[in-house]
Amino acid sequence: MAFRGPLLLICLVGGTLLACLASACSSSDDTSASPTGADTSSGGSGGPPGPPGSPPAPPSSDAAALQKHKAEMLTSLWENSTTVLQYGFSRDNHDGYGYTSGRAGFTTGTSDSYFVVKCFDAKFGTGNGNLMAKYESALAALSKAQQDSGSVQGDTSTLDAIGDYNADWRKTANDASTSGPFDACQDQIVDQLYFQPALAIMKQWGLVTPLAMALLYDSTIVHGEDNVNDLVKQTNDDTGNGAQTPAAAPMSQSAESDWLKAFLVHRVALLNSSDAWNHGIDRAANYEKIRQAGNFDFSAAIVTDAKANQLFPGGSYFDSGYPACVIAPDGTVSGPPDCTAQVSN
Questions:
Q1: Whole-model pTM over 0.70
Q2: What is the rounded distance in angstroms from the CA atom of residue 280 to the CA atom of residue 319?
């Protein structure tokens, strides 16, 4: 949503969750098909458990793809009130970010909407049938202004002078002739701008669990890399790494739990500091609930009913109003109709 840093594409290697997730990130996200073959009986582990206090065994690639998809479903729920990825969503949220669109809440006020449209124009071509090509120059100008100034460009007047941006985005995502490359570009930009940087942070600091991946991915989408790196620094300070020394080995689960707890305290403060973010504060509460339950590998059901006022006492926070959905270990979803709505409300 609030991308501020340079575009990164980092391929991670090694015998850990990160390697499996990097492989999943490098392939196209096919959200129309459910991942199969995951070993949910043991959290999708690719090997036997280690001794107490050791990091978990790396998962299989199928399990990693399922874990990644659960992370995507959670962020989709926070962004669009449904676990179904909303490629065709587009509207003005009146939050100062311009128009917010697509599966990750790409915004015209930052650079990510521009990257999606630029990618689509390259894949599909700029001739007849491309409703988005006419916006590329205006989006490029907004992106440059944002990068040069460091300030979100919330003014949509240059886009409005060209056409109905929101309607054209929705038509492009829903038309059979354009939806394939358009959705693929959304997947590509999500991986480049959000998943890969989240995996790089995990690798740098020794984090290994699906919960850490989901939290860092969501945080990067909402706050941008610079803000997430600030949160990481504060968290390292709180957990005894004031020197900011990169990890030499993966964290134990107990150490990672302490790290995530500290990170979430700082993230709640950041969410609550901005009118653009504070209505979504219960997203942080839900990751904290998962942490407290010890569901680090997402092998147990996830229920999205957590409230910041309950899990972070002492503050006064909005009720985000997220539906109480149940994401089962195999990735199936139950709960109120909004949980699996095909179109965001």
A1: yes
A2: 8
